[in-house]
Amino acid sequence: MEPELIPQLIAEIALADPRIRRNDEMEQVAQIGMWAGILADVPYDDAIRFVHEHYATSQWPILPANIATRWQAVVRDRMTRHVGTFEPTAHPELDPDDEAGYRRALAAERQAVALGQQPPTELAAITAGPAAEEVERRMAALGDYMPRTVRDALAPYRPAAAARVEAIREGKPDALAVACPVETCRATAKAPCTAPRRGGGRRTLGNPHPSRLDAAEGAAA
For the chain, first and last CA: distance in Å? Predict the structure, then answer.
């Protein structure tokens, strides 16, 4: 946000919350300088939207940090969904050997996504389209990163993993996808079930607790 927009932002906020406005001239100058520094990266329209969201649920005066924090969350969400790949075909003006131009275009694209000027390129977008079926066929041909024969050979040494794979092959719910509800276990999702030892400590079970299987079936229903 440009510094000259800060007085307008504060004036709009003051329409809903007069406590924001400073009456002393020196305090006004200091307030504008402080807000301008904190909100330098926040677009004006987004700042106004965050102000509306704040006062829709809170009676406390808004701080510039409240606006900046919401903006950072928006940018983080956009960049998390953006795969970050760069399509040279979308930039025919670039020379394939122009590395500096490539870097500038990539930085500009990421900046546009962060500011909301361009939607994130999500995984679904690059796995869809005319070539999607061919990609799936080739991935199926390549198979897993661990060949099935190797996985089966390791099964006796990895009973929990083997039981999980076998359940998935049979079309059963993945028990490890949910937390275990058994009071003496409480294994988190993806972690194998455990049980207390008589002499202290815990032992890992080869199969999940039946209650966990029921919970997985309920979650999948």
Answer: 48
pLDDT, tens only, 93-114? 888 788 888 888 888 888 888 8
pTM of the prediction?
0.51
For the chain, which residues make up each domain, given as ranges?
A: 3-81, 148-220
59 touches 84 (CB < 8 A): no
Q: What is the C-alpha separation between 191 and 208, in angstroms, rounded? A: 10
Per residue, the 3-state secondary structure of the chain, as one string, reads CCHHHHHHHHHHHHHHCHHHCCCCHHHHHHHHHHHHHHCCCCCHHHHHHHHHHHHHHCCCCCCHHHHHHHHHHHHHHHHHHCCCCCCHHHCCCCCCCCHHHHHHHHHHHHHHHHCCCCCCCCHHHHCCCCCHHHHHHHHHHHCCCCCHHHHHHHHHHCHHHHHHHHHHHCCCCCHHHCCCCCCCCCCCCCCCCEEECCCCCEEECCCCCHHHHHHHHHHHC
